[in-house]
Amino acid sequence: MKTKVLLIFFVATALTGCASKAVDQKAASAQGTYTQVCKKVSKAEIAALFDRWNRSLQTDDADKVVANYAKRSLLLPTLSNKPRLTPSEKEDYFHHFLEDHPSGKIDFRFIEIGCNTAVDSGLYTFNFAKTGDSVKARYTFTYRWNGSKWLITTHHSSLMPERK
After folding, report:
1. Using CB atoms within 10 A of its CB, is residue 162 exposed (0-12), middle (13-18) or buried (19+)?
2. Do the beta carbons of residue 118 and residue 111 sit within 8 Å?
């Protein structure tokens, strides 16, 4: 009988300890008292992420372009009214966008860096080799470090309101 009582006591104590540890972790998370290691990065490295994305456009392969985006990300494209959330929706957009062989050039940029996040916003121009057209637009790329590389989490692009 003593053995059963002792066993029940030890099991109850162990479970109480586990429960309080889980509560402590939840409380720490809710209070924002967790430790995060921030990836050190320069503005030049963030600027180079646009170059990586632009080089992927040059391949004319929509899958290679989409590989720059985090799985959970948003594309608000220049030439479509439909927000693109899934990799397949982004692939569909880029499949059509790449038909005219676009190439982008940054005209003005503003970069902000946070802990494992970065924002690159500004103005860019796209030239389309197939049609000879040129399109000026505003852009914002937000990036997140995923532990091994920087990926786009939001990409917003819109035509310039004033055409000159």
Report:
1. exposed
2. yes
| Bridge partners of residue 117, in order along the sequence | 144
Residue 3 tokens read as 């053995």
What is the distance between the alpha carbons of residues 145 and 139, in angstroms, rounded to a whole number? 20
Phi, psi of 139 (to 5 degrees): -145, 155
Residue 96 has a CB neighbour count (10 Å cut-off) of 12
> Over the stretch 79-99, which tens digit does the pLDDT of each residue have?
899 999 999 999 999 999 999
Place of tokens 């005219």: 100
Question: What is the model's pTM?
Answer: 0.77
**Residues near 54 by Cβ (< 8 Å), separated by ≥ 6?**
103, 104
